[in-house]
């Protein structure tokens, strides 16, 4: 009797399973629930990559050139901006009042007392660009215009540009930020901006977790 009861139970279970999976003849739709689709943005790897990119930040400690090394000091931060580009924030003390040209330069080498070892303006797109201001789409990627300094010697600059990134071809890491002695006229090609000598600068490096603003 137990064997017969066990066999009947198995048969009944099989019939119920078959009924649950067969097509509903009145609607033509299957009664099985389809797995939900997953968009690209929901995949763990894609989401992780986006979060990592958004969290990137670079910094530069700014010091005076030559004998003014300890008289001029400040910080520049470069934060990844959405959907692309970089937010640049610069605060520096010890400069003369007025406007000073400020640019990203090709090299992070600041060994020369006059900072000429930093090379020219960062221009990853080559001949298609020229020196100009931040509103000109054909400018050097490293052209940041001017930083305004108050009568106490404090300068502040804040802007967002899509001409730069944290890393890659247009990445700021591995280059330097340079401040000039005079205002950049945003048009003179040689010397760029006619902004005079280089009075301060800092090598741009990737920020560690403890250094992030």
What would you say this structure looks like, in words?
There is one protein chain. The protein is an alpha+beta fold and about 210 residues long. It has a single domain, classed as Immunoglobulin-like, CATH 2.60.40.200. It is built from two helices and eight strands, in the order ααββββββββ. It has helices spanning about 1-20, 45-55, and strands at about 55-65, 75-80, 85-95, 100-105, 145-150, 155-160, 175-180, 200-205. Strands 1-2-3-6-5-4-7-8 form an eight-stranded antiparallel barrel. β1 (about 55-65) and β2 form a beta hairpin. The radius of gyration is 30 Å and the shape is globular.
How far is the first residue's CA from the last residue's CA? 78 Å
The number of strands is 8
Number of helices: 2
Q: State the order of secondary-structure elements, H for helix, E for strand.
A: HHEEEEEEEE
Q: State Rg.
A: 30 Å
Q: State the CATH superfamily name.
A: Superoxide dismutase, copper/zinc binding domain
Shape from CA axes? globular
CATH secondary-structure class: Mainly Beta
Spans of at least 5 consecutive residues whose pLDDT stays below 50 are: 1-43
């Amino acid at each position: 009797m137990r064997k017969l009861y066990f066999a009947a139970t198995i048969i009944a279970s099989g019939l119920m399973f078959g009924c649950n999976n067969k097509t509903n003849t009145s609607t033509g739709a299957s009664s099985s629930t389809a797995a939900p689709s997953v968009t690209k943005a929901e995949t763990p790897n894609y989401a992780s990559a986006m979060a990592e990119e958004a969290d990137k930040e670079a910094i530069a400690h700014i010091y005076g050139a030559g004998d003014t090394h300890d008289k001029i000091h400040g910080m520049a931060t470069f934060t990844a901006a959405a959907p692309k580009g970089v937010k640049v924030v610069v605060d520096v003390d010890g400069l003369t009042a007025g406007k000073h040209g400020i640019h990203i330069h090709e090299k992070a080498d600041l060994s020369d007392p006059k900072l000429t070892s930093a090379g020219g303006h960062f221009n990853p797109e080559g001949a298609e660009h020229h020196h100009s201001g931040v509103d000109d789409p054909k400018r050097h990627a490293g052209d940041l215009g001017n930083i305004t300094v108050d009568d106490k010697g404090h300068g502040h600059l804040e802007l967002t540009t899509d001409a730069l990134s944290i890393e890659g071809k247009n990445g700021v890491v591995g280059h330097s930020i340079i401040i000039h002695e005079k205002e950049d006229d945003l048009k003179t090609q040689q010397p760029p901006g006619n902004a005079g000598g280089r009075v301060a600068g800092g090598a741009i490096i990737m920020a560690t977790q403890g250094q992030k603003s």
